[in-house]
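# nightly structure sweep
# worker-07 picked up a monomer target from the shared queue
# config: single-sequence mode, recycle default, output format = structure tokens
# input follows
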Amino acid sequence: MLEIQKKLAVVLASGGMDSCVTTAIAAQNYELAMLHLNYGQRTERRELKAFNDIADYYNAKLRLVLDTDFFRKIGGSSLTDEKIEVSLANLESKEIPTSYVPFRNANILSMAVAWAEVLGAEKIFIGAVEEDSSGYPDCRKIFYDKFNELIEVGTKPTTHITIETPLISMSKADIVKKGMELKAPFHLTWSCYKEEEVACGVCDSCALRLRGFQKAGFDDPIPYKVKPKYI
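# output follows
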């Protein structure tokens, strides 16, 4: 019996827990073309390792790592400008945190669309989360709906690529549960904004991640300097 070849999807993977679970979801039905961006973030080296470890885990033969320094030159984010302190987590805050990188996802998606069009991929998966995230404006469903419209008018008439955001309306706890269901390799991921050896446990990203694991009733497998209770 002939094996049916899977269609191709580009997966944007930072190396964090959300992109890991998104990769696990995409891998169910698609051959993976995994894309990662080094943009001068504080934990660039550690994130790249996590990306490659996850890509290896899913046997992704197609992978692309792009390097750019324009986010660092532009500044405006504590992830790319060391003069701006990474703020401690405040999960009740409604303000956009200092870790927001201006218009980052639009730039990364543009790169992904270009690669997807060349590869003939029909989907781009990204682990954006609106409900239980840091309030980043480029993690909202409306942003991706509008970007899908842009792809349709900005690519060849024969190109039809859509962005998939399978986690967009999920909480971090639900994402943990989904990852456990799919046996996603959480132990290979990295989310901390500040540290590359042992996660700090107190930055916004660590706090959201830890709270998700705590609410879901699972132990987070990566090492932390401190593991506060966030529930």
